[in-house]
Design goal:
Blueprint (H helix, E strand, L loop, with lengths): L1 E17 L3 E11 L13 E11 L2 E11 L5 E9 L4 E8 L7 E10 L8 E13 L3
Antiparallel strand pairs: 1-2, 1-8, 2-3, 3-4, 4-5, 5-6, 6-7, 7-8
C-alpha cells in the first residue's frame, strides 16, 4: 500500500564535538501524526526517534530509528538514513499487533522551525511517503 504522511514534534540535540573538520551529535525526538487526513494510515500515532548525526569535512550523514505507536498501542519501528546529496530513506523494520510483519520503504524530508531554541531543542514537521505491506 502507498502512504503519504506527516508528523510534527520537537527534538533535543546533544553535541559531542563541534569543529570545522568534525561535528557529532545525538538527537532524540518526540511527536504525533495529525488527525487529518483520514486517509493517512498512520494518523494519531505517537512517534519517538533517536539518532546519531555527523558532519565530516562538510559532508552530512545521519541515521537513526523511529517507533510509531497507534491509538490501540500497536507499534512499528523503522530505520532512517540521511546522506548529503541523496534522498533521505526510511525502511520499516519490525511491528507488533496489527503491524506485525510490516515491510516497506519510503523517503522523507524535514521542515524545521525557523530557528532552534536556546537550549538546543527545536520544533519541526517530517513529511514522508512510500509503500508498505503487511502479511495476509
Amino acid at each position: 500500500m502507498k502512504y503519504d504522511s506527516e508528523w510534527c514534534g520537537h527534538s533535543k540535540n546533544i553535541f559531542l564535538l563541534k569543529s570545522p573538520e568534525l561535528t557529532v551529535w545525538t538527537q532524540e525526538a518526540w511527536g504525533i501524526t495529525p488527525a487529518e487526513p483520514k486517509s493517512d494510515p498512520f494518523r494519531l500515532f505517537n512517534v519517538r526517534c533517536v539518532s546519531l548525526s555527523q558532519v565530516v569535512n562538510g559532508k552530512y550523514h545521519g541515521e537513526g530509528s523511529c517507533s510509531f505507536t497507534d491509538p490501540d498501542g500497536d507499534t512499528f519501528t523503522g530505520v532512517w538514513t540521511s546522506v548529503a546529496g541523496q534522498p533521505n530513506r526510511w525502511n520499516f523494520a519490525v511491528g507488533t499487533g496489527k503491524w506485525k510483519g510490516i515491510q516497506g520503504e519510503g523517503t522523507w524530508h524535514a521542515e524545521p522551525a525557523k530557528k532552534p531554541f536556546p537550549d538546543g531543542s527545536g520544533a519541526f514537521c517530517l513529511v514522508h511517503s512510500g509503500k508498505y505491506t503487511l502479511p495476509q
